[in-house]
Write a structure and sequence with these properties.
The protein has 192 residues and is mainly beta. It has one domain: 3-Layer(bba) Sandwich (Glucose Oxidase, domain 1). Helices cover 10% and strands 28% of the residues. The chain contains three helices and eleven strands; from the N terminus they run ββαββββαβαββββ. Helix 2 links the parallel strand 6 and strand 7. It comes from Cohnella fermenti. Pfam families: Cyclase. This is Cyclase family protein. One of its GO terms (molecular function) is arylformamidase activity.
Length: 192
Amino acid sequence: MRFIDLSAPLRDGMPVYPGDPPVEVRVVHTYERNSWEVRSLSMGSHSGTHVDAPSHMHEGAATLDELPVERFCGVSRLVEPEGAWPVGIGLFFALPAGLELLEKLIRHRPRFVGGELSEPLERALLAEGIVTYTDLWGLERLPRNKSFQFFGFPLRIEGGDGSPVRAVAVLDEDEEEGEGENGCETGPEADC
């Protein structure tokens, strides 16, 4: 098995969507003063790599805590916008994906959709009850048109419209090249 971390590190002052709250990470307890370490986190619900609930863009739609946990994981594939797609699994796009893909996506009934999604496409998918993942890192490291397991669990925020996630792809293969200890992929963006 090989684990590929697709998550952007959350850090103080990281870029956010214009108008969203800034990300602030502060050390409030230290080993020297308190004999433990604790950080204060302040951020918007759509900071860094995150999942969007339908309620993010549609009033009265499902919130994170109303969705069953199995909606945030499952068999997935990285696909090309113009290629063939499997039905009923998670679909990810490494290339920009726009509203022109909506009808095809609806026909393929994905569990969730992630990648470089345009805002109109994201809004339309959420209207269909399809959760979306955005600000994923390193999708190009995933194999094309080969299934993998995806896990992107949100925090269980009551009434939540979105949440940062630790997005991980698990490939059912052992490859020595590019793989570190415990099957974690190594490289500039890996932090296993």
